[in-house]
Amino acid sequence: MLAMIAGCGSDDGNEQQYTIEPQLDFVSVNFSRGAGTSTPIDTIALTFRYRDGDSDIGLSEQDQDAPYQAFNFFLENGSTLTPVPGGRVDAVYNGGISSFVLVSPGTATGKLVTLETREKPAFSELPPLLYPYSCLNYRAGNVLVAADNKNILDDSHVIGDSLTMSGKKFYILSTVDNILYSERNENALNLYVDFLVEGNNGTYTEFDFTRDLPTKVCAQGFDTRLPRLASLTPGRHTDFVFDLNIISPKEGEITYAMASSGFRDLFTGKNMKLRVVLKDRALHASNVIETPIFRVQ
Question: Among 33-37, 84-88, 233-237, which stretch is predicted with the lowest mean pLDDT?
């Protein structure tokens, strides 16, 4: 079963049409059923055109420092919480390469916030360790703190081990004994796709994969990172889930293939739309585009 909806985007390539904010035009949305297994993987493929006057769309795997860090951790100082970045790093550990999140407080002061912090009256509104907050707001294991920043730790933080990276010592916080409060940094990603589902009253509301799954398992949703586009030559390129048609450094067409074995269980027979926004490296947000109504069936 194949459902296809298409729209007409602008082909106007005049220079005066470019702005420093990305501009998006809807092209098509396509649902296709998977086959051949007991749990087939279905695909929703979204295609849109983009234009960007300063050609700065895309993030690489190396873009892990602020403002593109994966997480914000927090330091407690009196009754105040101060966000500090936590970026993904790979380091040699136990004879192999392991992935960690490095907390980088910079000049901020205070103690690293944990689950136990919410027991203090000033921070009682921090979320409990229950779904979806257990997925969204708490992290345990593979967290690094530089020895130079040991002042953000106290006796409640348990150091499980240490490693050396670039000639400097880093502490590995114990997986079992440290449940750290954090928030996902939306600027770690640059393409945001909301799934809008029609309710019984005819209005459309967002289905949030990080909060609304009936199985209450941790999920990422379909917000993602586009790669650096300006470095690509004109023509077609494939990058994991993206089919990229680069027209020039300032414009092109992107197909994003979102795959899941759960689409039919969640959405069969329901009217749906996708809402899409793109950010560039300077965090300029594009216009918002919505697809026409389509069905998973």
Answer: 33-37
- Torsion angles phi and psi, residue 294, rounded to 5: -140, 170
| pLDDT range class, residue 12, cuts 50, 70, 90 | very low
CA 138 – CA 178 distance, rounded (Å) = 10
Compute the distance between CA of residue 37 and CA of residue 83 in angstroms, rounded to an integer: 45
Does the pLDDT at position 26 exceed 90?
yes
Q: In the predicted model, is pLDDT for residue 28 greater than 70?
A: yes
| pLDDT 10s digits, 112-144 | 999 999 999 999 999 999 999 999 999 988 999
Q: What is the residue-wise DSSP string for 127-163?
A: PPSSTTHHHHTEE-SSEEEEGGGGGG--TTS-EEEEE
DSSP-derived 3-state class of residue 248: strand
Of the candidates 149, 184, 219, which is a domain's last residue?
A: 184
Give the whole-angstrom CA distance, residue 103 versus residue 88: 9
Write down which residue in 162, 184, 206 finishes a domain: 184
pTM for the model stands at: 0.90
Read off φ and ψ for residue 224, nearest 5 degrees.
-155, 180
Domain that holds residue 200: 2-59+189-295
Q: How many residues does the chain have?
A: 297
E strand residue ranges, 156-222: 159-165, 168-173, 180-184, 191-198, 204-207
Gap between the Cα atoms of 31 and 211, Å rounded = 23
